[in-house]
Amino acid sequence: MVLAIASPSLVQSSLLSFSSFPRLSALQTPGKKKHDFLLKRHPTFPHRFPPCRSNEEVLRVQNLKGIPVPQRGHHSICFYNAKEESEGKFQGKETGLDWRILKRWDVPWKWQTVILTMTACGLSFILTGLVEAALTPYLGFRIGEMNLDEKAEVLFVDQAVATAVVLGVVYGLTNTFQPLPDDLFRYESKEPFNLQKGWLLWAGVGLVGAFTAVALTGAAMALFSGENPQRETDALVRLLPLIGSSNISTACLVGITGVLAPLLEETVFRGFLMASLTKWFPTPVSILISAAVFALAHLTPGEFPQLFVLGTALGFSYAQTRNLLTPITIHAFWNSGVILVLTFLQLQGYDIRELLQAS
Question: In Gene Ontology terms, what is one molecular function of this protein (predicted)?
Answer without folding.
Answer: endopeptidase activity
